[in-house]
Amino acid sequence: MEVVVNAATSVDGKLSTHERRQVRISGDADFDRVDRLRASADAVLVGVGTVLTDDPHLGVKSEDRRVERLRNGRPASPARVVADSRARTPSDATLLNDDAETYLLVSAAAPEDRLATLRDVGATVIEAGEERVDLPAALDALEAEGVERLLAEGGGELIYSLFSSGLVDELSVFVGSLVVGGRDAPTLADGEGFVADFPTLDLRSVERLDDGVVLTYRTE
Ligand SMILES: NC(=O)C1=CN([C@@H]2O[C@H](COP(=O)(O)OP(=O)(O)OC[C@H]3O[C@@H](n4cnc5c(N)ncnc54)[C@H](OP(=O)(O)O)[C@@H]3O)[C@@H](O)[C@H]2O)C=CC1
Ligand SMILES: Nc1nc(O)c(N)c(N[C@@H]2O[C@H](COP(=O)(O)O)[C@@H](O)[C@H]2O)n1
């Protein structure tokens, strides 16, 4: 499976405010680039932190791209995937609507009643890990479901875990021209942080877009 991570950060590396309030960092051209990435993916992954704060849709927005996918025998939008160890995704979350399939990656610690509720509203549950989602095992299970290209859109906890498990193939970051600040604001990679064996990246392109730049890396 090819795993592509995409996010937008301020110049000081923040994904959102210290209150975890979503910030419009990308401009129209960058949102269109993200839409192209979504259209090229079989599934889009976020952590449950992003679902709880942003209630994202994660679908392809361009009608032309949805039509093109259908013409190629694919669903109009990629599947939505949430890393959600304890099944905290609200049953009325937007990404559980009928626009695309939705997978919840949970751990053995997820309460049965929550799983039943979420299955009732259409989610497909994949269990991997005891206390927290075991991402390598969960991604293997997704691959068995036909997901060959996975776009991970954040947030910082999830992106850190993907790097720490060596699962990232490509990273693109839009760096917008604003400073968000705040020592507690989410950054591109949070988690516990690396103290050695830092993942190193190979910078492949630098593109000026909107009022910022898109940096694209492959992992080594
Ligand atoms: N600017 C941008 O491009 C983007 C910004 N954001 C912003 O990021 C913020 C949310 O980020 P953040 O709080 O880091 O939350 P995340 O979206 O990264 O979700 C983190 C949660 O995912 C669950 N999870 C399950 N398994 C794992 C695992 N193996 N590794 C890591 N997490 C796992 C955990 O909850 P549990 O243990 O309960 O399962 C964890 O707390 C929001 O403010 C949002 O607006 C988000 C996306 C893009
Ligand atoms: N790429 C990007 N640029 C920004 O400026 C952003 N604020 C975000 N945020 C993330 O985009 C997702 C919303 O998706 P939908 O529009 O609801 O489909 C969500 O994950 C945000 O955190 N991304």
TrEMBL record:
Signal peptide: none annotated. It is an enzyme of class 1 (oxidoreductase). Transmembrane segments: none annotated. Pfam families: RibD_C (PF01872). Residues 3-215 form the Bacterial bifunctional deaminase-reductase C-terminal domain. GO terms for molecular function: 5-amino-6-(5-phosphoribosylamino)uracil reductase activity; NADP binding. Its EC number is 1.1.1.302. Keywords: NADP, Oxidoreductase, Riboflavin biosynthesis. InterPro entries: DHFR-like_dom_sf (IPR024072), Rib_reduct_arc (IPR006401), RibD_C (IPR011549), RibDG_C (IPR002734), Riboflavin_Biosynth_HTPR (IPR050765). GO terms for biological process: riboflavin biosynthetic process. It comes from the Archaea. Pathway: Cofactor biosynthesis; riboflavin biosynthesis. It catalyses: 2,5-diamino-6-(1-D-ribitylamino)pyrimidin-4(3H)-one 5'-phosphate + NADP(+) = 2,5-diamino-6-(1-D-ribosylamino)pyrimidin-4(3H)-one 5'-phosphate + NADPH + H(+); 2,5-diamino-6-(1-D-ribitylamino)pyrimidin-4(3H)-one 5'-phosphate + NAD(+) = 2,5-diamino-6-(1-D-ribosylamino)pyrimidin-4(3H)-one 5'-phosphate + NADH + H(+). Belongs to the HTP reductase family. Homodimer. This is 2,5-diamino-6-(ribosylamino)-4(3H)-pyrimidinone 5'-phosphate reductase.
